[in-house]
Design brief:
Strand content: 15-25%
Largest sheet: 5 strands, mixed
Helix content: 40-55%
Number of strands: 5
Strand order of the largest sheet: 3-2-1-4-5
Radius of gyration: 27 Å
Shape: elongated
Number of helices: 10
Structural class: alpha/beta
């Protein structure tokens, strides 16, 4: 099962009012385990950065001026996510921006059903409690000390840890899956392993003295001993 933990940074709150994406960060999971594959791009929004947004992520006009526009990175991004589930904190916000950017390029939009909203999961799991990414890091004891400003890739890496805790910890199905490799993906997905009997039973670890002592103990209990009814 392939999932992409994703985050964006933007110039504001509403793409319909001219706000744009300025950073995308994404981390690949396979069977709930990080594979080491990531996607990260800074994006030139072709507009000035409002001070309020700059104070959140620290991405200013000078830094973004020589970065590619969304059109230049769009296909690479779409290829990276594929049809994997997208794990996003407050998915409605990021999906709104991603689909606006894709729509302006006449590219296919991402179906809402492809998103998993960790904010919704946290609110249902801990009703009435703070559900921000920082609050969940405190709840699960996840180190987010490097998060002095919002950053899409860093936030994706932190969210990946939070997501695994929200669904019950790493590998919640207790499947001891190995590291992801494209060559083994199809085979491992089709494998349905179940324990079976040993071809050769293990030898008894009881010594003859222990076996004799147990037999004498059972005999001493008489004919009504429960052990004799089970053997």
């Amino acid at each position: 099962m392939r999932e992409i933990v994703l985050d964006t940074e933007t110039t504001g709150f509403d793409p319909e009012q001219g706000d744009r994406i300025v950073e995308i960060g994404a981390v690949e999971l396979y069977n709930h385990m990080p594979t080491g594959r990531t996607f990260h791009e800074y994006i030139n929004p072709r507009r000035s950065m409002p001070q309020e947004a700059f104070e959140v992520h620290g991405l200013g006009d000078d830094f973004l001026r020589d970065k590619p526009v969304f059109e230049k990175i769009a296909q690479n991004f779409v290829d990276f996510i594929g049809d994997a589930k997208l794990v996003i904190h407050n998915a409605a916000f990021d999906m709104k921006f991603l689909n606006a950017e894709l729509g302006w390029l006449n590219m296919a939009k991402i179906p809402w059903e492809q998103a998993i909203d960790t904010l919704d999961i946290a609110r249902r799991k801990f009703p009435g409690s703070p559900a921000s990414l920082d609050a969940l890091c405190r709840r699960f004891g996840i180190d987010n000390s490097s998060r002095t400003l919002h950053g899409a890739l860093l936030d994706s890496e932190i969210l990946a840890e939070v997501y695994l805790e929200l669904i019950g910890g790493r590998q919640p199905d207790f499947g001891l899956a190995g590291a992801y490799s494209p060559e083994t993906t199809e085979a491992s997905a089709e494998t349905d392993w179940h324990p079976g009997p040993r071809s050769k039973p293990l030898p008894s670890r009881l010594s003859e003295e222990e076996r004799a002592a147990h037999q004498a103990f059972v005999e001493h209990m008489g004919d009504g001993a429960l052990w004799k009814q089970l053997t």
